[in-house]
Amino acid sequence: MAILRVNGQGREFAAEMFPLTVSDLLGKLRVDAATVVAEVDGQIIERDKFALTKLHDGQSIELVRFVPGG
Fold first, then answer.
1. Which helix (H) or strand (E) holds 68?
2. pTM for this model (two decimals)
3. 17 three-state secondary structure
4. Which terminus, N or C, of the chain has the lesser number of Cβ atoms within 10 Å?
5. Quick check: is 59 in a domain?
6. Can you name the residues that pair with 44 across neighbouring β-strands?
7. 13 vs 28: CA distance, rounded Å
């Protein structure tokens, strides 16, 4: 089992299910990449780099979603 801390909560993944990239994680969480800002270990990741940004066991990811309204 591998763990990612997503928005402060630990999420366990079996080795074969571990998200390889930020894009993969968003897909597993069913989050639309167009509506989120991602930070990995304190670094903001540009949206066009989501598919290139590799994830590793123990990393901390913060996802901030944009919601419409006022």
1. none
2. 0.89
3. helix
4. C
5. yes
6. 39
7. 11
